Amino acid sequence: MKLRAVLLLCLLLFTTFASTIQAAEKSQRPNIILIMCDDMGWSDIGCYGGEVQTPNLDRMAAEGLRFTQFYNNAVCWTTRASLVTGLYPRYPRPHLTRNMVTIGEVLQQAGYQTVLSGKWHLGRTESTHPVYRGFQEYYGLLDGCCNFFDPYYRDPKFKRGITGDGYRFFAHNTTRITEFPEDFYTTDAFTDHAIQQIKNCSQSDKPFFLHLCYTAPHYPLHAKPEDIKKYKGRYAAGWEALRNERYQRQLKMGLVDPHWKLPARDPESADWEQDKYPRDWQERRMEVYAAMIDCMDQNIGRLLATLKETGVDENTIVMFLSDNGPDASEPGGANPEQLPGPKEYYTTCGPSWAFPQNTPFRRFKTWMHEGGISTPFIVRWPGKIEANTITRQPAHIIDVMPTCVELAKTEYPTTFQTHNILPVDGKSILPVLQGETREPHQSLFWELRNNQAVRQGKWKLVADRNVNRWELYDLEQDRTETNDLAAQYPERVAQMKADWQQWAEKTGVAQEKHQRGKQIP
Questions:
Q1: CA 58 to chain centre
Q2: Nearest one of 355, 322, 362 to 240, comparing CA atoms
C-alpha cells in the first residue's frame, strides 16, 4: 500500500510539473497581430519617406525592424490568399481550396484564439468563409472594396459587375449587416472590433492571433473632413515635386541606394504643368488619400495603446504591410464633378498620383516591376527585436505563414480535416527578426494578367504585358529597374525563364495563361 501511495504521489507530481511546463510554454508564445492595409504605396508612410502624418507606424519602426525588400503579389486577392496560406496562388482556383490550410486554422489548432477584423476578399462559401477557415471571430467586409461611411451604399453602375446587384457583403461572423450608424467609418469600425477582441482575448491564458485588414487607402476616396483639413494645400506643387521630395528623404534615411537612378515619370502619368484637369480637384484627390492613411495610423495608435492597457504589449509581435503597390486605375474614368471625400462620390487617385506613391520604383498595382510588388513591412516585438533597425534581406508574403507557425511553436500540417495539404512555399523570417542572416529563397515568382517575374539573388527577370518581352535587372546596382541587361546576359535570361516556366506549370499558371490565349514571351 505504501508503494502504491508513493507511486500515485510521484504520478501526481509529474502531472503537475508537466502541466506547469506546458502553461509556461503557452505563456511564452507571443500574441501575433498581422495588420494589412490596401493599395498603399511603398513611400506613403513617414518611416519610408512619406509626408503623411503616421506617428504610430513611425514609432513601430523606431521600436522595431523595417524591411526594404519585402514583396507581395501585386493585387488584393492573390496577396491575401498567399498571406494566409503560405502558398503561391494556384490556378484555376487561386483563392482557398481544401488542400490549403490557413494561418487561422493552424494557430487555432495550436491553442491560439483567432480573430479577423476587416477585409477578407477570399470568398463567403462554407469552404472559404473566414469562420469556416480558422477564425473564431470575424467582423468586416467579405468583398473587395466598399463605401467607407456606409458599406451597404450601392456601387455606381460602372462597378456593379463585381457584385451583380452593386451591394457589398459586410458581416459579423455569418450574419450580414446592411444598416450602419451615422458616424460609421470602416477604418474606425474595424479597429473597434479588433480592440474589443484584444480585451476579450487578453483575459484568457491562451495566446491570440489577430488579423486586422484595413480597406484604406483603397478607393473610393472617402475620409473625414477633420482629417482632410490637415492636408489642404500640401500637394499644390504636384506629383513630380512630391516624388522628388520623398526620394530625398529616402536617401537621408538610408532606405535607397544613391547609385540607383530615379526613373522618369511613368508614361501613364501626366505632366503636372500641362495636366488637363482642375488643379484644386487633382490636389483634393491626394489630400483625401493622405487623410485615409492618417486615419488608419490614428487607429493603429489606439490598437497599440490597448496592448499596453491590457498588459500584453511585451508579449505581442505586431506586423504591418500593404497588399500591393498603389492603384493607378480609374474605374468610371476621371471625373472632376466627383468630389473626393464625401460618401456620395466615388473617386480614385489615378496614375499621376500613384506615380509618387511608389517612389522610387516603377509601375503600380498589378505590375511586376518593383512599384507593383514592393511593400513596407514593419515588425515590432518589444525586447525581442532590436529597435530602429533596417534589413535588406529579401522576403515575401508566403513567408508569413511559416513565421507564425514557428512563433506559435507548432507544425505546418501535412493533412487537415481529412484533406492532404500542399507543402508550404514560404520559409520563416524569424532568423531575420532576431538579427541573423537567413538563407534566402533560391527563387521568387510572380504572375498576374500576363505580367510576370522571377527573382534569383540579385537578378530579376520581368515581363510587362505591354512590352511582351523579358527584361533583366541587377537589383543590387539598379533596383529602380532603369538598365535592362537582357541583351548582355542571354544565357541567364534563358535559365531564369525556364525556371519561371517550371513554376508556372507547377502552380497552374501556364495552363491558365493558355486558356486565356496568352503566350509567355
A1: 17
A2: 355
Nearest Cα neighbor of 249 from 33, 495, 500, 48 is 48
**C-alpha torsion 449→81→127→114, nearest 10:** -160
pLDDT of amino acid 15: 47
Q: Locate 301 and state its grid cell.
A: 495608435
CA dist 326 and 351 (Å) reads: 9
Q: Name residue, grid cell 512599384.
A: 371
Task: Give the Cα separation of 199 and 221 in Å (integer).
Answer: 31
How far is the C-alpha of 6 from the C-alpha of 14, rounded, in Å? 12
- Enumerate residue ranges in the chain where pLDDT < 70: 1-27, 94, 514, 517-521
Query: DSSP character for 45?
Result: B
For residue 420, the 8-state DSSP code is E
Residue 465 in contact with residue 453, Cβ under 8 Å? no
C-alpha cell at 233: 494645400
The H or E element containing residue 404 is helix 400-407
Exactly one of 121, 129, 396, 441 is catalytic; which is it? 121
- In whole angstroms, give the CA distance from residue 286 to residue 219: 12
Q: Is 172 a catalytic residue?
A: no
Interior angle at CA 375, CA 373 and CA 379, nearest 5:
145
Strand extents, DSSP E, 174-256? 175-177, 208-213
- Angle (nearest 5°) at CA 407 between 403 and 410: 95
pLDDT tens sequence across 376-414: 999 999 999 999 999 999 999 999 999 999 999 999 999
- Report d(CA 22, CA 24) in Å as an integer: 5
The residue ranges of DSSP E strands in 351-393, in sequence order, are 374-380, 389-391
Catalytic one of 76, 145, 146, 201: 76
Per-residue pLDDT at 439: 95
Prediction pTM value:
0.94
Q: List phi, psi (to 5°) of 459.
A: -95, 140
For residue 287, give Cα distances in angstroms to 154, 223, 310.
24, 9, 35
Domains of the chain (ranges; CATH) run 30-441 (3.40.720.10), 442-521 (3.30.1120.10)
pLDDT of residue 175: 98
Q: What are phi and psi of 462, to 5 degrees?
A: -140, 145
For residue 76, indicate whether it is catalytic: yes
- pLDDT at res. 28: 85
C-alpha cell at 261: 537612378
